[in-house]
Amino acid sequence: MAKTITLETLERKLQSHDWTFNYSDDHRYYETGWMQQKEIKQEVEKLYEMGLTKKVNELFYSHYPKDGCDIPAYYGITKEWRDHLEEQLFASLEQDKFYRVQ
Predict the structure, then answer these.
(1) Read out DSSP for the chain?
(2) pLDDT, tens digit, for every residue of 35-86?
């Protein structure tokens, strides 16, 4: 039976992921974190294929701690943190501009 991949399943994995697994002295924690990272990457890639790139990026970066963890590319994310923030800023400015004109 095929596993259903949705934004909700990805969010659950992001919420429970040990973002600092690389720093663990216990190999079991490292192995678990590495497997979680691999599963997250697979889900990200599938959701990208479904045309949900923007929503996936927003969801990922809402959970991504930025410091002390692997780079976003290791999770299958194609947009860098800075580019994501810049896109959010411009979208916000455009929305503000729209409301001022009204």
Answers:
(1) -PPP--HHHHHHHHHH--TTGGG-SSHHHHHHHHHHHHHHHHHHHHHHHTT-HHHHHHHHHHH---SSS--GGGGT--S-HHHHHHHHHHHHHHHHHHHHH-
(2) 999 999 999 999 999 999 999 999 999 999 988 889 999 999 998 777 777 7
